[in-house]
Amino acid sequence: MEKLQNLTERVLSYNLGSSEIENLGYNRILLQVCGQAGHGKSSFINSVRYAVHGGRFEATASEASAAESYGGKTLIRTSYRLTEVITLVDNRGFGKADSYEKEEIYTQLGNLQPLDEEVIWESCFDKRMKAITTAKLNSKDLLLPIFIYSAQCAIDESTEEIKEFLKNAQKLTGFLPIIILTKRYHGDVTTLEQHFRGLGMEQIFPVENYTSEDHIKTPKKDKIFLSP
Ligand SMILES: Nc1nc2c(ncn2[C@@H]2O[C@H](COP(=O)(O)OP(=O)(O)OP(=O)(O)O)[C@@H](O)[C@H]2O)c(=O)[nH]1
Ligand SMILES: [Mg+2]
């Protein structure tokens, strides 16, 4: 396995200048962190930043308390610059996913929603169209979808919804979503991995996020966050 220091350096020095991505006209990679409310999106972002930059653990991307997990804690679509080239985007989590909400999910994913502003599920069509057309489509961003799913939740009635989301995410960005299974020691990761493989996903990473309660840094854990 690659040494931790090498991995860190590789992430930090990742440069578009020498890659074909820049030739395609991109100047930034947006890691689009998506998923249902309370599954650990913000915690995943905090973990990646902690693994890459070290220092004191800070839950900068705000974690939902267990009680508010399903209410949706992150309301603003916030961006976190990881390196010169890579930015993590904490998208608003979805809950009931009715058709209005679905549109918002995809406008976030397609980067048609402004960054660092509150994501409002607009119910009026005109207002939605206005928001979309005034948000400048930043075509210089390469979008990479990351789907967060908690191992604590069995795949149940939301299966179809997730399947549809993953397919659309691929269509919208051109990339197969990377699956992150959070709370890996709190559920049946093996069954979930099989499930996501069955949906055609190739990169699936079970993780135990660093959280405010548990953030003892270990090389093994760091490596997991640097690998995807
Ligand atoms: N044990 C454990 N707890 C986790 C893990 N990931 C997240 N949590 C906890 O789960 C709760 C929800 O995590 P968040 O990161 O806030 O989830 P989110 O997807 O950003 O939630 P919204 O912003 O509401 O959509 C918090 O209390 C976290 O501390 C994990 O891998 N292991
Ligand atoms: Mg959040």
UniProtKB/TrEMBL annotation:
Name by which UniProt lists this protein: G domain-containing protein
Query: What's the domain of life for this entry?
Result: Eukaryota
UniProt-listed InterPro entries: P-loop_NTPase
